Every structure is written in structure tokens, then in C-alpha cells.
């Protein structure tokens, strides 16, 4: 009989409990059994076939951390996208939120801490480190050119793509980009205000500002490596 790993993945909220129980949202968890080969393929494809990364972090480092019980990972499935409590059961989010899904600190402190599998921990670690690395790399290697380009758009000459297109297409005026930006921001503010999203206005602005700051680093990364964080 072939050995199989159990991989869990969270699925969207699908049901509500009876009103007498507070009309709380239930979370359904879908479980899928994968063979070892399928489990490896799942990790490789999830990282756009970055084989060196998969080999080092998931075939070499991850088993070491798992079998040394780092972060109590040995008590949990090796490959899983679910969250768990201290008993190894699926984390019951209903116990730490009210009927409006507001986070309750006192209930959270009474409930066991949340744990995630070692593979999931490495995914988070790699994603956060990748974003930080892209920003630092852009600052160190391209920071001077970016700043000079902001001060003088003609610094460093024209981009090859601009030279190829400028004789066939007119430049888009800045006021047009400004109007589109204002429209998108306005629609975003209207959306979070009209529908119940629990997202404050300032939170939406912070998110937009953060994404705007990553446009240049992400563009440089994808333009030079055909990869993205």
C-alpha cells in the first residue's frame, strides 16, 4: 500500500450555526490525500518550479526542523495549510470571534495558541523575507538610478521599449493617470464604506500606499528575472 500524506486546505465559509448559538460562521475544511510524489509536485508547482529553493527548504531544511520539533511541528502534519490548536485539532476560529466576526482578545487568551505546520511556516518565512529582500536589493543596486530618474525623467536615456513605441503611439498625459487614480481610490473608499467590510478608511489608504511603494521593486524584479515575490 502506498504511503499517503494528508494535506489540508481551508475553504471559504459555507454555513451558519443556528441563531440560538449566536449566528456564528462555520468554517469547513477540505482534506485531500496525496502520495509522496504528488506532495512534492504540489510544493514545486507552488513555487513556480524553483527547484533549488524546494530542494533546500523543503527536502533538506524542513525535515530537520520537523523532526527536531521546532515550534512543536512534530505534533502536526508535515504538509498542511490549516491552523491547529494545542491538541492537534483544526483551530476553531468561532471561539475567538463574536457574531460579527470581531476578534475577542479575552477569548483568544483563554483558547490554546494557534499552530501551523512546518511547511506552512516556511512558506510564510520565505514570503516575508522575499519582500524584504526585494526592497533592500532595489535600494542598494538601483536606488541611485531610481532617485535620479524621479528628478529627471531623461536620466540614463530612454528605455528601449519607449524608443520602439514613441513613434507610433502618443504619450499618455499625467492628468489622465491622475484621473484614473482618483477614480479607483474613490471607488475603493465607496466600496468599504457602503458595504460592511470592517476595513477603516485609513487602512485602505495604507494598503494602497504600500502597494504603490512595491510597484518599482516588483517591476525591476520581474523585468530582470521573470519572477515575482
TrEMBL record:
> Per the database entry, which stretches of residues form a coiled coil?
none
- Spans traversing the lipid bilayer: 55-74, 114-141, 175-195, 201-221
* Single GO term (MF): oligopeptide transmembrane transporter activity
**Keyword Repeat attributed:** no
Asked if the keyword Membrane belongs to this entry, the reply reads yes
InterPro entries with a match to the protein in the record: Oligpept_transpt, OPT
Q: List the keywords (alphabetical).
A: Membrane, Peptide transport, Protein transport, Transmembrane, Transmembrane helix, Transport
Indicate the principal place this protein occupies in or around the cell. membrane
Membrane topology designation: Multi-pass membrane protein
**Which Gene Ontology terms of cellular component type are present?**
membrane
Where is this gene product found? Answer: Membrane
Give the GO biological process terms. protein transport
Q: Which superkingdom is the protein from?
A: Eukaryota
**PANTHER family tied to this protein:** ISP4 LIKE PROTEIN
Task: Give the family from UniProt.
Answer: Belongs to the oligopeptide OPT transporter family.
**What protein does this entry describe?**
OPT oligopeptide transporter protein-domain-containing protein
Amino acid at each position: 500500500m502506498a504511503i499517503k500524506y494528508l494535506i489540508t486546505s481551508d475553504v471559504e465559509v459555507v454555513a451558519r450555526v443556528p441563531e440560538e448559538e449566536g449566528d456564528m460562521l462555520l468554517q469547513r475544511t477540505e482534506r485531500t490525500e496525496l502520495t509522496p510524489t504528488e506532495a512534492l509536485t504540489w510544493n514545486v508547482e507552488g513555487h513556480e518550479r524553483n527547484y533549488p529553493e524546494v530542494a533546500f527548504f523543503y527536502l533538506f531544511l524542513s525535515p530537520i526542523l520537523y523532526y527536531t520539533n521546532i515550534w512543536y511541528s512534530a505534533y502536526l502534519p508535515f504538509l498542511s495549510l490549516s491552523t491547529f490548536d494545542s491538541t492537534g485539532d483544526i483551530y476553531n476560529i468561532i471561539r475567538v470571534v463574536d457574531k460579527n466576526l470581531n476578534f475577542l482578545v479575552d477569548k483568544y487568551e483563554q483558547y490554546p495558541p494557534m499552530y501551523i505546520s512546518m511547511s506552512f511556516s516556511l512558506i510564510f518565512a520565505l514570503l516575508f523575507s522575499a519582500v524584504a529582500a526585494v526592497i533592500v536589493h532595489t535600494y542598494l543596486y538601483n536606488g541611485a538610478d531610481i532617485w535620479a530618474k524621479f528628478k529627471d525623467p531623461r536620466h540614463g536615456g530612454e528605455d528601449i521599449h519607449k524608443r520602439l513605441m514613441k513613434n507610433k503611439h502618443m504619450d499618455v498625459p499625467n492628468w489622465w493617470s491622475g484621473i484614473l487614480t482618483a477614480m479607483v481610490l474613490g471607488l475603493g473608499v465607496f466600496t468599504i464604506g457602503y458595504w460592511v467590510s470592517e476595513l477603516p478608511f485609513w487602512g485602505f489608504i495604507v494598503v494602497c500606499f504600500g502597494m504603490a511603494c512595491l510597484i518599482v521593486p516588483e517591476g525591476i524584479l520581474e523585468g530582470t528575472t521573470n519572477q515575482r515575490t
